[in-house]
Amino acid sequence: MEHSTRKMITFRRINLGEGLLYKEVRLASLRDSPEAFSSTLVDAMLRSDDSWHAQADQSARGSDRATFLATDERPVGLAALYRDERFEHTTELIQMWVSPEQRSRGLSRKLLSFAVNWAQANGYRTIRAEVMPDNLRALRFYERYGFVRSGEVSKHTEAGVILMLDVEQAGALFYESS
User: Fold this and answer.
1) For residue 21, what is the DSSP state?
2) The CATH number of domain 10-174, selected from 3.30.420.40, 3.40.50.970, 3.30.465.60, 3.40.630.30
3) For a surface tag, which of 46, 65, 131, 164 has the fewest beta carbons within 10 Å of its beta carbon?
4) Where are the domains of the chain?
């Protein structure tokens, strides 16, 4: 009889008081994939613990932002959304990352499903994501799950690809009871 050594992965919204947990996963994402984010590892490392706690607490409640975690004994993935005030009924997927050892196991899809369900429950019609054009894996992932290229120019870099997801149409694809 075979025994699996894989740990159970849990998915959830970040809780109040989990600033240091958020810091841990965010620093891991910036170490692993610095080219995928507009933030830098150095800037993130210079932030105070109080600022990490404040951001986690804001992401734990309300409808302006949310952060979802994938954890085993430690964080192995995250998806974070933030209301984009420039566009009505739009939230921006500002962070999406899964640790290298957990990739190709469905964690990204599950994190994205949490993001879509949260967006739908909070009245958002569109999820916007920005991806660097050389990040083909991310582009394929988002397009496979219904994101379409908008053709607009990135607010962070002139090279970023802006993708949009219609939350209503995506709801059936991502519906999962939690």
Assistant:
1) H
2) 3.40.630.30
3) 46
4) 10-174
What CA–CA distance (Å, rounded) separates 178 from 161? 31
- Predicted TM-score (pTM) of this structure: 0.85
Name the phi and psi angles at 139, rounded to 5: -60, -45
Structure tokens belonging to residue 122? 């909070």
Question: Per the structure block, which two tokens stand in for 40?
Answer: 């830098």
In the sheet that holds 126-131, the strands lie side by side as: 10-13, 65-71, 75-83, 90-98, 126-131, 161-166, 148-149
- Could you give the angle at which helices 19-32 and 49-60 cross, rounded to 10 degrees? 100
